[in-house]
Hints:
The structure is a single chain. Helix content is 40%, strand content 25%. By secondary structure, the chain is an alpha+beta fold. The protein has a single domain (2-166), classed as Aminohydrolase, N-terminal nucleophile (Ntn) domain (Glutamine Phosphoribosylpyrophosphate, subunit 1, domain 1, 4-Layer Sandwich), CATH 3.60.20. The strands form three sheets. The chain has a five-stranded antiparallel β-sheet with strand order 4-5-6-7-8, with helices on one face. Strands 1-9 form a two-stranded antiparallel sheet. Helix 3 runs antiparallel to helix 4 (139-156). The protein is globular, with a radius of gyration of 16 Å. The protein starts with a strand and ends with a strand.
Amino acid sequence: MAADMGGSYGSTLRYKSVERMKPVGKHSLLGASGEISDFQELLRYLDELILYDNMWDDGNSLGPKEVHNYLTRVMYNRRNKFDPLWNSLVLGGVKKGQKYLGMVSMIGVNFEDNHVATGFGNHLARPILRDEWHENLTFEEGVKLLEKCMRVLLYRDRSAVNKLQASNS
């Protein structure tokens, strides 16, 4: 998973060290595009969810699929209240050897795929991923593919910055 670290205030690129990816629980990694304050609110919701899950102390923990379903419901619920969270989210993770990657839009539309993107990445990076991604991709090949996608996005998006945050967690 990779994201640039730019944060805008209106049309001005003001912040250049905004983290858009955060671990969620033991098995998941969440990435977001859009409004940073809404992303912070989502992280508070997820902290409460993980805390509540840990309080059961039953040896089980939420996996990426459960967190993705929760985020889908949160985004859809907020949209129905006409108070949407202005984010598109990518959630990935591994639990018990099962890989998971999903995306949720600001209105609760969601899907799972072998590769996902938000914002401009849906238009510019996904075609590259469709052409070059394959099931037997090595870690090094995956990193090079992500770098290629992020380079294309940097060149084509006026509000992108050349500082990236990447994780393989």
